[in-house]
Amino acid sequence: MKNLCISLLIIMLFSSGISAQENQEVKNNEFRLELLNFIGSTFYAEYERRLSDDHGLNIVIAPTAIDNNNKTMYGMLVQVNPKLYFTIGKNNKSQQRIYFSPYANYRYLDISQTSTYYPYNYYNGTILPQTQTNTFIASSAGIGMLIGFKIEAGNFFIFNLEAGGGPRYVFNKSGNTSYNNVNEGFNNWNLGYSGIFPRFNMTMGFKF
Asked: Containing domain of residue 166, as a range?
C-alpha cells in the first residue's frame, strides 16, 4: 500500500509538471517588424495581444526620422486594429490562418527643406548666398479594413502578410508650402493626400 501511494504521488507530480509545461507554452504576445517601411526610414513595429484563440488586439507604433543634409522629415504613426482569425491549416510544426482587421490610425509629420540660391546684386556687382526654408506640417487620420494571412511556425516565428485600405483625411496643415514642394527623395505615399489610401504590410517577428 505504501509503495502504491508513493507511485500515485509520483504520477500526480509528473502529470502536474507536464500540465505546467504545456501552460507555459501558450504564448499570448507577439512582436513584429515591417521590413518594407525601412525603405522610407520608418521603424514600423507591431505588438499583438492574444485575447482568445480567434481574437487578438494589434497596436502599431511607427516613428519616422530622415535627415538628408538639406531635408528632414520627422513623424509618428499610431494605429489600433483588432483581429478576427480563421484557421485554414494546422499541423505539429505550424499553423496558417487568415484574418479580418478593421483599423484606425493617426499620423503626424513635420517636413522641412532648405535651399541655397545665389542672387546677383546689380548695384554693386556682388553675389551673396541666401537660404530659404520650406516647411510642411500636417496630421492625418484614417480608418479601413485589412485582410491578412499569418504563418506561425514552431510556436515562435511569425510571418504575416496583409492588404486593404480605407479613407484618410489630412488636416491641420501648416507651414509655408505644400507637400508636393518638399516630397522629392522620400519613398512614401503622398503624405498630403486625402482620399482612399491603399495598405500593404509584410511583417516578421516572434511570440513571447
From this structure: 2-207
